[in-house]
Design goal:
Elements (H helix, E strand, L loop, with lengths): L1 H9 L3 H19 L13 H13 L10 H13 L3 H4 L18 H4 L1 H22 L10 H11 L2 H7 L5 H20 L7 H6 L1 H9 L2 H17 L9 H30 L9 H52 L15 H9 L6 H18 L25 E7 L4 E7 L3 H23 L6 H12 L17 H49 L4 H15 L3 H25 L1 H4 L4 E2 H6 L14
Antiparallel strand pairs: 1-2, 2-3
Helix pairs in contact: 2-7, 2-8, 3-4, 7-8, 7-9, 7-10, 7-20, 8-20, 8-22, 10-13, 10-14, 13-15, 14-15, 18-20, 19-20, 20-21, 20-22
């Protein structure tokens, strides 16, 4: 026990912990500070979320198409800062949405947890990027590229805007990264085979030990984490294919080890071949044994993958149901918007109307599902002929089309302070570059017959899974729907920088060093080899000396990598500060505002224009 504890302590990654603390510090500073707040009204969708969250305090019914985990956190944040919220809120002023709502509460409470989770997103970005970039590397892991990815997340203005107010995007990003991280940890965990002999010796203890091994624990956490993601937004199901692929590939890797074992056992079960048997008969016996074992192993593979996928989905559904159960427990009084429930769950309608408790949980859940479908059908389509249209086409999102003025205020009509849904253009450009580089590498590897890197394929899949589905949605969509895909583009950029750009730099430098040293060292090398022909140790010594000289080629590569890293961070930082006023309600003149309007498709609008 003591040796195990010492071993675990030695395995603690001090460098990783230091980076996490550093990232958390600057994330908190950018999300919580400066402590400026709007002076008159809600910020964009706060007109939905604030009255909805306050409805929990007084038990008033409301409907929203998204699940309620984010609102649950915002509710407890509200209660932390406003213990007497129930007595302060006027239920008659609450509804699904209240334009220009004036809350009697301290808004720091309801905005607290969005800021907390917004501060944690760069941490999760670092951890997930670390796993992708060090997919097979256990010794001397690479920290620089994961750190670079997370710094893009820290200084991404659109992340910060969504973090500082009572909005749900940062909850979604955090809870999407969570199942991705734990599914990768599950994939990388040691393969564990069920031992029938050990099971027979101690059935209960061995079963418990087997079920609680590292890989199974990671699998269980993955299911729970997926539940938190789906309980924030249904669109988080976009990470499910990623999880299914990792489960399937890992199981195939595990079951491949069974194939030879089962084949050997089946071969031994057959009758003993006569000593005069020929090679053909032996080959036939082996082929039959392999075919039989393949059927057994394939059946086991299908059952194992199905069971594990069902476990993940079941755990996710348990979490999802738990969040809705909490939601239903808080909603106890009728509101006009509850009239629609009558068509889908009359018992729930009567419960709200009469204060009874006859409706089943599934009936309530079904009513919310049907109301969500109805809501989506009545959302208008994108219409550029409308003067106040703020929606945009999914295809143009990677170039940040169209930005949205979430909020503005002024004291003198000469300068305006904004909360603008606008990203860091440099970061967005890096994301596009990463996608182009990595996608191009996959295509080149495919046509040249090289094995496609699973990390590259998985990341490209994650990006498109969070972007392309919007092509099939007819209702109006907005730039903030692209934020999850943007987050994955940052990870893609880090991987592309390491696996494409830096490898190209290494090849160029190695070729240059080899060319420069070839003529100078050839004569010396030949003399050493010639003089050491009689004694083997002299040959080895000569080759070691030459290798040590050639090894200096790594120094310029390290310098170049450091310069590239520094330039990327510097460019991101400069762009972050340039668009700082649009993120933090800092007053701008019209000229200063228009100086930041660099791309026509951004569609930035000065008030009254």
């Amino acid at each position: 026990m003591k040796n195990t504890l010492i071993k675990k302590i030695k395995e603690i990654d001090i460098t990783k912990i230091t980076i996490v603390i550093f990232l958390l510090t600057i994330s908190i500073l950018t999300r919580f500070y400066p402590p400026v707040s709007p002076t008159n009204g809600m910020v964009f969708d706060e007109s939905y979320f604030v009255p909805q969250v306050e409805s929990y305090a007084v038990g008033k019914y409301f409907f929203d198409p998204h699940p309620h985990l984010a609102r649950m956190f915002m509710y407890y944040g509200m209660k932390m800062f406003n213990p007497s919220a129930t007595s302060l809120i006027d239920p008659s002023k609450l509804a699904n949405k209240v334009d220009n709502y004036k809350t009697p509460l301290n808004m720091d409470g309801i905005r607290f947890f969005p800021r907390v989770f917004g501060s944690l997103v760069p941490i999760m970005l670092f951890l997930v990027a670390f796993e992708f970039i060090n997919w097979k590397r256990r010794k001397d892991p690479n920290y620089f590229f994961p750190l670079l990815v997370s710094l893009l997340g820290v200084f991404e203005n659109i992340f910060i805007v969504e973090s500082r107010y009572a909005l749900i995007t940062q909850f979604l990003l955090f809870f999407m990264l969570l199942p991705i991280y734990f599914s990768i940890k599950y994939y990388k965990s040691a393969l564990n085979h069920f031992s029938l002999s050990k099971f027979k010796t101690s059935k209960i203890l061995y079963t418990i030990k087997y079920l609680l091994n590292e890989s199974n624990i990671y699998l269980l956490i993955t299911g729970l984490a997926l539940g938190t993601a789906v309980s924030t937004k249904w669109f988080a199901l976009s990470v499910l294919p990623f999880i299914l692929i990792l489960i399937s590939v890992r199981q195939a890797r595990q079951d491949s080890k069974y194939l030879d074992l089962v084949s050997e056992r089946l071969l031994k079960r057959g009758s003993v071949l006569p000593s005069t048997g020929v090679a053909v008969e032996i080959l036939k016996r082996k082929m039959k044994a392999w075919r039989d074992s393949s059927r057994i192993v394939f059946a086991k593979y299908i059952l194992s993958v199905t069971a594990k996928v069902l476990v993940v989905i079941a755990l996710a559904f348990i979490v999802y149901s738990g969040v809705f159960a909490w939601h239903f427990s808080k909603i106890t009084t009728f509101a006009d918007s509850a009239e629609e429930i009558r068509d889908y769950c009359p018992d729930y309608y009567n419960d709200l109307k009469n204060g009874t408790h006859n409706a089943t949980f599934l009936c309530k859940l079904y009513s919310q599902y049907e109301l969500s479908n109805k809501y989506e059908r009545y959302v208008p389509e994108l219409d550029f002929t409308k003067k106040d249209e703020i929606g945009s086409k999914w295809l143009t999102w990677p170039i940040m089309s169209r930005t949205i003025s979430y909020y503005w205020q002024t004291d003198n009509s000469e300068e305006y302070s904004f909360v603008y849904l606008m990203g860091n253009p440099i970061n967005w450009a890096f994301g596009i570059i990463g996608i182009v580089l990595l996608f191009s590498k996959i295509i080149v590897d495919f046509f040249e017959g090289r094995r496609i890197n699973i990390v590259h394929a998985l990341l490209i899949m994650l990006f498109f899974a969070n972007w392309l589905p919007y092509a099939f949605i007819s209702r109006v969509m907005y730039l903030y729907h692209y934020i999850p895909a943007l987050m994955f583009s940052f990870i893609i950029f880090g991987v592309a920088l390491k696996d494409v750009v830096m490898q190209a730099v290494d090849r160029v430098l190695n070729q240059r060093v080899f060319t420069e040293t070839k003529g100078q060292q050839r004569e010396e090398f030949e003399k050493k080899v010639e003089g050491s022909m009689k004694k083997e140790n002299k040959v080895i010594s000569a080759m070691k000396n030459l290798a040590s000289k050639l090894d200096t080629s790594g120094n310029p590569a390290i310098i170049i990598k450091g310069v590239i890293f520094a330039l990327i961070v510097l460019a991101s930082l400069v762009s972050y500060f340039y668009y700082y006023p649009l993120t933090y309600l800092y007053p701008l003149s019209k000229e200063q505002f228009e100086a930041r309007y660099l791309v026509k498709d951004w569609d930035m609008k000065w008030p009254g224009k």
